[in-house]
Structure formats: structure tokens, C-alpha cells
Specification:
The structure is a single chain. This protein is of the alpha/beta class. It folds into two domains: about 1-135, 3-Layer(aba) Sandwich (Rossmann fold), CATH 3.40.50.2300; about 145-220, Orthogonal Bundle (Arc Repressor Mutant, subunit A). The protein contains eleven helices and six strands. It has helices at about 10-20, 35-45, 60-70, 85-95, 110-120, 125-140, 150-155, 160-170, 175-180, 185-200, 205-215, and strands spanning about 1-5, 25-35, 50-55, 75-80, 100-105, 125. The chain has a six-stranded parallel sheet with strand order 2-1-3-4-5-6, with helices on both faces. The chain is elongated. It starts with a strand and ends in a 10-residue tail after the last helix.
Amino acid sequence: MIKVLIVEDQEIIRQSLEIMLHNKAGIEIVGTAENGKEVLKLVKKLLPDVILMDIRMPEMDGVQCIEIVKEAFPKTKIIVLTTFDDDEYVFNALKNGASGYLLKGISVKELVEAIKIVYGGGALINPNIAVKVFKFFSQMAHADYIVSVAKDAIKDLSKNEMKIIQFIGMGMSNKEITEKLKFSEGTIRNYISSILSKLSLRDRTQIAIYAVQSGLTIKEVND
């Protein structure tokens, strides 16, 4: 059974989702929450496999909640289910680790299928949202988004640093990288600081952009 936590600040929508997904094959609703702060308490207790997350909520919004949940529970999958397709919400939710971004109004059948796809390790984005994402990556290839890195600086990177750049470009959190490389989070943070210094980059986002633009995310980094 896929354990699902529903997060929605509007009671009528929260209850409707619970009713619609109740008794659906392979899905168990383990709890509901109306804001991000409630989610943080319930995740520790219920350990859901998939969270259906609204974006605009009181106390703590979905974007911030996604970041905190994914840092502490990287294996928990999150699907954003909202009426908002603003660029800021889309990119920040996906950047923070959401595996899906769907607009309310999809059918129950589509929602059930989305839960199963994300639980299985896939990702799902509403077609309208996908257009925004592809447009963003297209724009990122132009001058305003280009991150310049000196070739000599790249030569100074170790194999582990190259791997970490690759993983950051793939959207992994520090905790997920520690699981991949079997290092402590402190060691990963030190590596990231070293990468920023060697490449003269400002922050983690610039590392991610460099990884995508250089094609590093689809290359194999040898041991």
C-alpha cells in the first residue's frame, strides 16, 4: 500500500480529496494536514510514502515545507496539487524536491496514476507547467543565465567534487548526496564550499545551472 498524506488548508477540498482517494486500490490515506507546520509533525509520526501538497497555506507554505521535508526525509515523494501555476511557485517547488506539480481539476483516475508514478520513482508535471519548465531551461541557455567557469578551475576539481556538482545539478539535497557518496553532511558542505571557491561561483543555484549547461548531469563521472 502507498501511504498518502493530504495537505490542504481548505477543509472542503481536503475532505473531498480524502473521500475521492478512499478505498482506491493500492492507496491508503494515513492522515491530513492544513498547513506546513502540521506536516512536519505528521511526517515523523506517519512516515508517508507520498504527500499531496498545496502551495499557498497559512503558518508555513508548501514551498518551504517541501524543502524541509525533503532534507529530513529524502525518500518521501511530494506532489504539488494546487490552482497556482506562477513561475515562482513552480520553479521553487521543483527545485526543493517536488516530484510532481499538478493543477487542481485533474480527474481522480489521473491523480491515482500520478501517485503511483511518483511512488515508483517517476516524475509528473501538468502539461501547462511543463511548458514553463522547458521555457525556463531554454532561457537558461542564453546570456542572462549563463554561468561562466574558467577551464583551468575545472581541472582543480577532484572526482568527488565533480560528482557533487553532478548531483546538485540533478536536484539532490545534501542528505541525498550523503547517501550516494557515504559521506557525512558536514563533509558534503565542506566539498560544496570548496567547489564554490574553486569555480568562483556565488551559491548552490549557480552550481546547478553550471551542471546543466555543461551537460554534466547526463555525463558519467568515473571513479
